[in-house]
Structure formats: structure tokens, C-alpha cells
Hints:
By secondary structure, this protein is mostly helical. It has helices at residues 2-12, 18-37, 39-64, 82-91, 132-137, 140-155, 158-178, 185-224, 226-255, 265-277, 279-292, 305-311, 327-331, 334-359; strands at residues 100-105, 110-116, 124-131. It has a domain at 2-64 and 168-211.
Amino acid sequence: MKRLVLTSILLLGRYAVLPLVGLAGGLLFIWLLALDHSTRFVLATAPIMFCVIAAAVALALGILFVPARRDRSNVLDEATAPALWRIWRELDPAFAKPRRSLRFDADFNASIGEARSYAGIFRQHVTMTVGLPLLMILDERAIRATIAHEVAHAELRHITGSGNLFDFLRACENVLHYANPDRTITGRIAAFLLRAVLEWVNREYRALSRQNELAADRRAAALMGPAEMARSLVLIAGGAARLRELVFAPLETDMLGAISVPATPLERISTQLAAIRDHDALAAAAAKTMDEEPMEDPDSTHPPLRASLANLGYATLPAVDPIEAPAIAQLLPPDAARDLAARLDAEWRKLAQTRVRLDG
Ligand SMILES: [Zn+2]
């Protein structure tokens, strides 16, 4: 039953709230019919019915006004990043330029998402986001494997499901926009129910998302070979652990009690680049992650490294080729790389400035 509800949410998106609206309509109909027979019952239940109707109207309105999800900031057009676009085109059998956008951000990660135009009826637009640190630390081979993994998510329609889930959650949250929980009883009840629903849906979704990750890896492995995919998984796990150790932990310490904004994460990555990319340390960090990670983490959207490697046929951590030249030098023109880093640094400084000021 739970899976059925989740499946319909993933298929229908925001329209998955329609059965609830229908149910409320049905209740209203029965209630109006009862008006002839037992006036006392109708009067006694009137406050409940008004709440139900208000909630149904709010839900129905919520469907229409779900905010657009397409993030148009930090776009990487084809003139800026021709090599990245070329890799995407090579690996994506459904590639269609007008329906593809490429973005960059400051994460050591890549992701893919989908947005539809008004009310979610029109064609999907796929946006892939590649983190600048990923390009700075990994090599072109690992970036290719990562892009193949993201394309597999799109091919297997995982992103349609997550897009629909996102729409559904936003449509539900919209209820509170029309029925204020601080001022109306309907809103208070809706907020209470909503919290329960959101918690449940999110938990189920994280479990599904972990399965999707494994499915995307298998699909990408059919194209790139399991060894290449396993290599990228090991390098990303090791790289993430090294980044935590060499960049983010010291940054946290520096932020505490800082009176001026410390060096940005990207500046720190540049300074520590050789240490982060050091093969032996990185492989050791990946091995440590593999040993320490729990076998099943209900809070994570990603499976542990051990499960991802087992999925590709590796029972133990495979020995992988060291990282070659940083992908950024091959995939982005030097001016563009500098410019993108400067933009991310400026964004980060602006956020950090408020935090330093608040703490100080
Ligand atoms: Zn993924």
C-alpha cells in the first residue's frame, strides 16, 4: 500500500493530491444530502466540514501555483564550456539541445534535475549541474563516468519521479499559504497532518533514491565498463573524505570567532590541491570511509560505498588508477575557470559575511 501511494506520487506529482480533493468533495456531497434528514448532525459537524472544504480548496489552489523549479543561475553555456557539452552529447542518447541546460556550483558533486513548464504538463527540461571542485580535483575520465551516471538517471526516468515528488511536496506545502497555521484551525490541522505525510514520503523516497543510485551505476557501467564506474566511485568517496579533512573541518574552525571572512572553500581547495589529489592518501581515505560507513543509512539518499561497489561486482575496494591531470584544465578554458571560481567565491563571501557579522 505504502509503495502504491509513493508510486502514484512519483507518477502524478502535484496531481497526486487530487484524490484527497475528490474525497473532500464526496464528503461535502454526503453532508449536504444529510441536511434533509438530520439537521442536528449536520449542524454539529459543520465546523469540521468547513475545515475539510477549506483544506480541499487550499490543496486544489496549491496544485496550480507550485513555484517553478528551474534554477537559471550559474548557467554554463556551450560557448563557455564546449568540452563538457560535447561529453554530455556523446553520452546522452536522448540529447536535444533546446531541452538541456548545464549549470555549475561549488559542490564536490554532480546532479541532474528536470523542470516542466506551467502546471507540469509540458515537456521536460533537463538541467545537469557539475560542481567546480569536482572538475578541479578529478580527471576527465572520472568526470565522464560521473556524467554517464547522471545521464542514466535521466534515461531511467528517476528525475521525473523526483521532480514529481518535489512538486507534490510543494503543492502540499502550498496549503499552508492559503490556510495559515497561526491563524486558522484548518491551517493548524493541515500543518500537523502535513508534517506526518512529509516525513513518511521523504523516508520512503530516500529508500527509493538509494535503489535508483545503484540502478544508474549499473546502467552507466553497461556503457563505460564496471571498472571505470568503480574508479569514479572510489575517487569521489576518497576525495570527499580528503576535502572534509583538509578543507571543511579547518574552515569550520576558522569561521568560529572570526572577525573577518576567512579564505573561501575554493581558495582552500586550490592551496591544498596536491594533498587532496595525493593517490595514497586518497585511496586510504576511501578505504576508511568504506570501513566506517553503516551498511544501511535511512537518512541518506545515497547507498554506502560498499553497497555501490558490490553492485558493480566488487566485494572489496578495488585498486584504481591514480587521478590524472585535473579535468578543469581540459574541459574549461582558463579564463572561464577563473571567472566561474570568482563568481562562486563572491557568492560564498556574501553568505559568510552575514554569518561572521551575526556571530561577532
Ligand atoms: Zn546519482
